[in-house]
Design a protein that fits this description.
74% helix, 242 residues, mainly alpha, globular
Length: 242
C-alpha cells in the first residue's frame, strides 16, 4: 500500500497541495522582484526558508524553469546552476506581444457582448482609467497604486469576456509580464498620460461595439508598453535592481 494512502486525510491533502503552494510562493518572490534577476535558486536553501522538504521545492523549480521564470546557466562542462531569469529587452518584447495578443482577443469578445453589458464594462474601465489619470498628476505618483490600477484595468475586460481556455492561458503568462511592470513602473510614471490615452481608445472601442478596433488598440497598447520598458532597460541595464 502506498505511504500516502496510510496518511490521515488532512495530511494527505496538505501533502498534495504543498508543491503548488511552494510554486506560488517562489513565483511571487520572483514576480515581485524580491528574488532579483540572476539570483541563484538552490533547493536546500529554498526548502529551509519555506519550511518544507526538498521534494516540493524541486517540483516547483522545474515548473518555474518550464515557464521561463528560471534558467539554467553552465558553470563548467559538467555543472549547471539554476537562477532567476534575467531581464532583457528581447524577453519583454516577447512577453508583452503575447499578452497583447491574448488580451486583444479578450477585448474582441468584450466588444461583441450585448450593448448593456459592454456599456457597464466600459463604465467600470473608465472609472479605473480615471483613477490612473488622477494618479499620474500626483507628485510624486504612487508607483504601487499605478501598477495596481493598470493591472486592474486590463484584468477587468479579460475576466469579463475571455472564455475559460483563453483565461487559463492569460493566467499562465501574465505574471511573467507583471514581473517587468513591477520592476520598472517607477521609471515609467512620467509617461502615464500616454498609457491613459491609449486606454481611453480601448474603452471607446468596447463601448461602441467595434471588436476589430478593440483588439487592435489593446495589441498596440501592449506593444507600445514593450517599447517603453525596453527603452528603460537599455538605459538602466537589465538587472532590475536599480
Amino acid at each position: 500500500m502506498p505511504r500516502s494512502a496510510m496518511m490521515p486525510e488532512k495530511e494527505r491533502v496538505q501533502s498534495q497541495d504543498q508543491p503548488e503552494r511552494v510554486y506560488q510562493e517562489l513565483r511571487e518572490l520572483i514576480v515581485s522582484g524580491r528574488l532579483a534577476p540572476g539570483t541563484r535558486l538552490v533547493e536546500t536553501i529554498a526548502a529551509r526558508r519555506l519550511g518544507v522538504s526538498r521534494t516540493p521545492v524541486r517540483a516547483a523549480l522545474q515548473r518555474l524553469q518550464q515557464e521561463g521564470y528560471a534558467v539554467s546557466l553552465s558553470e563548467d562542462d559538467e555543472r549547471t546552476r539554476l537562477v532567476v531569469a534575467p531581464i532583457t529587452t528581447d524577453d519583454v518584447a516577447d512577453l508583452f506581444y503575447i499578452v497583447g495578443e491574448l488580451e486583444g482577443l479578450a477585448g474582441y469578445y468584450a466588444a461583441n457582448m450585448e450593448p448593456d453589458h459592454r456599456g457597464h464594462l466600459a463604465d467600470e474601465l473608465e472609472e479605473l482609467n480615471g483613477a490612473l489619470l488622477a494618479e499620474s498628476h500626483a507628485r510624486p505618483p504612487d508607483a504601487y497604486r499605478v501598477f495596481q490600477l493598470d493591472a486592474s484595468f486590463h484584468r477587468r475586460y479579460v475576466a469579463e469576456a475571455a472564455p475559460p481556455r483563453l483565461l487559463a492561458l492569460h493566467d499562465a503568462i501574465k505574471p511573467q509580464a507583471e514581473r517587468y511592470a513591477r520592476l520598472y513602473v517607477t521609471a515609467l510614471t512620467n509617461e502615464l498620460d500616454v498609457s491613459v490615452a491609449e486606454h481611453g481608445v480601448i474603452v471607446r472601442a468596447i463601448r461602441d461595439g467595434d471588436a476589430a478596433a478593440a483588439q487592435r488598440t489593446i495589441q498596440t497598447n501592449w506593444r507600445n508598453a514593450a517599447r517603453r520598458i525596453g527603452t528603460v532597460i537599455t538605459e538602466w541595464g537589465g538587472s532590475g535592481g536599480w
